[in-house]
Amino acid sequence: MSLEFISLENIQKVAHEYGYWAIFLGILLENLGIPLPGETVTLVGGFLAGSKELNYWLVLADAIAGAVIGGICGYWIGRIGGWSLLVRLGNLFRISEARLLSIKEQFSENAGKAVFFGRFFALLRIFSAPLAGIVEMPFGKFLIYNVVGAIAWGSVMVTLAFFAGRLVSLEQLVAWVTQFALLALLILVAVIAIPIWLESRGKGGEEIGR
C-alpha cells in the first residue's frame, strides 16, 4: 500500500464517501496488525463529527468497536501462529530463540499494561494485541485490558478532534498528535532499552573480572 494512498487527503476522501464504515474498518485493520494510520482515521472521524458531518457518538462507537474487534482478532492471530513466525524472523535477524524466550517472558509480565497503554504509542498499538497472543496472555484478562484501553483511547482521540478541530486545522492536529505519539514511543524504547543495555554491560564486566 503506497504512502500516497494513505495520505491525510485520501483518508478524508474515503471517510467522506464511506462515513462510519471507513472509520470502523480503518481502525479494525490497524488493530489486526496491518500498518494503517488508525490514529489519523480516528482524528478524521472526530473532526467530521465536530463539523456536524458525522455523529459524535457513532464515531466514538466505531472507534471503540474497531479497536476491540481488531484487537481480539490480532490476539488470536498471535496466539495461533505468531510464535513460529517470530522465531523465523528471529533467525533472519540472527536473534536466538533463547533471547526471544527471554523477551517473551519480560513482555508476559507486563502484557496487561502493554495492551492498555500500547494504544497511545505509535507502532505498539499495531503489535500489542498479537504479542499478547504470542505470550499466551489469558484471553479473559486480555479482553478486559483490550476493552478498557479501546474505550480510553477512542474517547481521547475522538473528543480531542471533536473540540480541537474547531480551533486548529485537521492537518495541524494530526501533525501534533503524530509527533507526540512518536516522542512517547522513543521515550518508551529508551526506558526499556537502557536498563537492558546496562544489565548486559554489567554481566560483561563480571565475566571479564572472572
Series of H and E elements: HHHHHHHHH
Task: Report the biggest beta sheet as strand number plus sense, adding barrel if it closes.
Answer: none
Query: Into which percentage range does the β-strand content fall?
Result: under 5%
Mean pLDDT: 75
- The geometry reads as elongated
Count the DSSP helices. 9
How many separate domains make up the residues? 1
The counted number of beta strands is 0
SS content category: mainly alpha
Q: Determine the fraction of residues in helical runs and give it as a percent range.
A: over 70%
Low-confidence stretches: 1-5
Question: How many angstroms does the end-to-end distance come to?
Answer: 53 Å
Radius of gyration: 19 Å
Explain what the structure shows.
By secondary structure, the protein is an all-alpha fold. The protein has one domain (8-209). Helices cover 81% and strands 0% of the residues. The chain has 9 helices and no strands. It has helices spanning 8-18, 20-31, 38-50, 56-92, 97-109, 111-117, 124-134, 139-164, 170-209. Helix 4 crosses helix 8 (139-164) and helix 6 (111-117) packs parallel to helix 8. The radius of gyration is 19 Å and the shape is elongated. Residues 1-5 have low confidence and may be disordered.
